[in-house]
Amino acid sequence: MKYCQGTRCHTYDTKDRKKGSKDNKRNETRKRSSFYYGNGNFCSLNCQTDWFNTHGDNAINHFGRVEQPIVLTEANAWQKQYNYDWYDNQDTQQRYHEVNTITRATRECEQ
Ligand SMILES: [Zn+2]
After folding, report:
1. Which residues pair with 97 in a beta bridge?
2. Taking the model in full, what pTM does it have?
3. Which residues have beta carbons under 5 A from ligand 1 (an ion)?
4. What is the distance between the alpha carbons of residues 30 and 43, in angstroms, rounded to a whole number?
């Protein structure tokens, strides 16, 4: 079991966050075996956004802020895509090919 990493998770007033009885009623951070958001770290998009609003700037500065554009050039622009010619030409064409998103050139690739 693990806790949602949302910094305000405990402030969302839902039944499943309520713990304790009479004298020590409280809301707690959600605890689950798995979560769907943020690589399994958050119980909701709200909690993911709360975490980013609290820690995002520090995290970006720690791991490296993008200070100039990240560039896609002809050399690293090959992407595997569905080959639309394949449907009508299955004996001569391959189902997938690589397209260079800069030059629009195509080439064969592993299927
Ligand atoms: Zn949460």
Report:
1. 81, 108
2. 0.73
3. 4, 6, 9, 30, 43, 47
4. 7
